[in-house]
Amino acid sequence: MPPESLMMMVDDLKIFTEDELMDMSLKEIFEGMENNENRPPPSDQSKVGGGEKRSRKKRKGTNNPILESGCIEKVEQVVRIKQKQEEDKESARLHSFNPACKINETLKPGRNGRMRSLRSTNYTKKVSAADLQQHIPVTFPEVLLSVEVYHNVRQCVKTQELLVLGKQPLTDLREKIHCSMDQVMQKAGQYDPSGYFLIEDVFYTDLRDPSAINYAKPILDWLRNSKEEVQKKWEYIISGRLHQKHKAIMGEVSASNLPRFASIEMQKIRFCDLLFRLGAGYLYCHQGDCTHTLVIRDMRLFHTDDVHNRTVYPIVTFQLKMVFKKCSACKIFRATKVTADDKWTPQNPCYFCDECFSLLHFNDDGLPYYNSFLEYDYNHD
């Protein structure tokens, strides 16, 4: 095909409606008629005024068949242009926008395996550029564990999901767990670096900081020094729903023995050293009594599609979106304070930004107008 045939004007790409085509055709017809009328007649010195009148009448009488034939030609031309446009649209239509084009049925995954392969590969976009500054290759063989962290108050709400390597220590996971209680305690000047994971029968305590406290020690002392009380509480626990389920399935069963709890420092244990059950609920405790349910949901082998940089792990694959309340007074800024039993507020509790809280509760000298309310710092819901 010659290159000239591939060239196209922009006007050729415009698609006209039927009304536009008809208007264009009629306009061309009437323009042709005006040109014929404005054309000067041939010079004939023998013709006088009467002859000019007869010639005008003659031309006037012969315009009707010319007009009809011109209209027919233009209508046929409109039809041809319309057909050409339809053919061009059909040939230029992409197959992905064509409703008649169906996806190959053999490429559709089954219901059970739908998008399952993406669970292991779609988290690479969550790796930030800052984490990629240092590259430490992952050594084989290696496994990946999917760990879920749940809310400390709304215990059925998952707040985070992370991917950790089997050869990583437990402290790497703890540093990636986000809880607003850490921010509250740090702002109040009472931050405690202590914490532990309770997985099966072992307390994995974090004692890296010199000021850290072994949370497991008083629990283990109570287990050793109050055996009768411990045994009663343990029998009460296992006689609940768990005992009823066992009885319904296996019949009458005897009370199981009290587990032998132990304590190990967290930084000395890797995930591949743990004894755990997939899907079982374990415990994460920090800041004294802030507890979270921890679930190891899945485990698989490391493969080529995973991120091969060890420094980016644990990778946060899910983070619960935080909800922030606005100031109840100005309705503009984010709330930083919350008051309870405040007599000058329309609701209890009531949320304030720093500016509105100062204006409504303190005078120009910085003294409070009244003290009959409780004040707390607010982060998010």
UniProtKB/TrEMBL annotation:
Report the principal subcellular site.
Answer: nucleus
Question: Which domain of life does the protein's organism represent?
Answer: Eukaryota
Molecular function in Gene Ontology: bent DNA binding; core promoter sequence-specific DNA binding; RNA polymerase II cis-regulatory region sequence-specific DNA binding; RNA polymerase III type 3 promoter sequence-specific DNA binding
GO CC aspect terms:
nucleus; snRNA-activating protein complex
Q: Where in the cell is it found?
A: Nucleus
Locate the region Disordered: 31-67
Biological processes per GO annotation: snRNA transcription by RNA polymerase II; snRNA transcription by RNA polymerase III
Q: Does the keyword Cell cycle apply?
A: no
Alphabetized, the UniProt keywords read:
DNA-binding, Nucleus, Transcription, Transcription regulation
What the record says about family reads:
Belongs to the SNAPC3/SRD2 family.
Name listed for the protein in its UniProt record: snRNA-activating protein complex subunit isoform X2
Originating species: Arachis duranensis
Name of the gene = LOC107465019
